[in-house]
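Annotated sample (chain length 207).
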Amino acid sequence: MNEEGLGLEPGWNPVIVNRGEEGIYFFNSKMEHWIGHADFSKPFIQEASLIMVRRNVPILGLPDLVINLDNRPAYIIELKTIGGPAGLGSVKGRDVLQAESYFHMMNYLGLNPRGVAIIKVIRGSDFRIINNIDIIIKQLEGGEDFVRLSKYVTIHRISIRGFDEFLRDVDYAIDYWLGLRNPKPSPSRGLCSGCEHRRYCPYSIVR
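Output written by the structure step:
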C-alpha cells in the first residue's frame, strides 16, 4: 500500500488493509468520519479519524475531540477515565505518545493545530468535555502544563517533540508489527493479566 492508494484528498475512498475482514470493516467504517470531511466552523469535532502513512503502513488515529477556533482545528483533546484520584497527577508514556501522534498526524495533513492535551477524569463524575469547552480553551491558552479543574478532573498539556524524534518511536512500533523485532517484555501486572501468553511467557509476572 502506498500513500497515493489511500487517497488523502477530501472525500474518502475505502481501502483494503492487511488485518482480515474485521480490520477492513473497522478501518473503512472509521474513515467515513475522516478529518477531511470535518466542518471546522463548528466549535468542536468528536472522534474524527486521522491518517498517516509510514513505510507503506497506514496508521489510523481517533482523537476524542478537536476544538476549533477561527474556523481551524486548534486543540486536540484525549480523554482518559480513571478509577480514583491517585492517577490524576500523571500520564503514562504510551498515552503521551498516543496524544502526540494525533498532533503530528494533523500537521502531516497540513492542518497545523496549536496543541494537544490529555484530560483525566475520575469515572462516575459528572464532568463532560463538551460542556466545558470555554474553560478548557482558557486553561490551554494560559500555557500551564498541568491544571487541576476540580478534585475529579485534571488537564495535562503535552509537550510535543520534533517530528523526527516522534518517528523513531513510530518506527520502533512498526518494526514489531512487521515482524522485524521481538516484543519487549512489560513489567505491568495489568497487561500481563490480560495477555493470552501469560501462562507460558518467560517474562510473565502473573503465572
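Annotation: Residues 5-12 have pLDDT under 50 and may be disordered.
Annotation: Residues 93-108 form the longest helix (16 residues).
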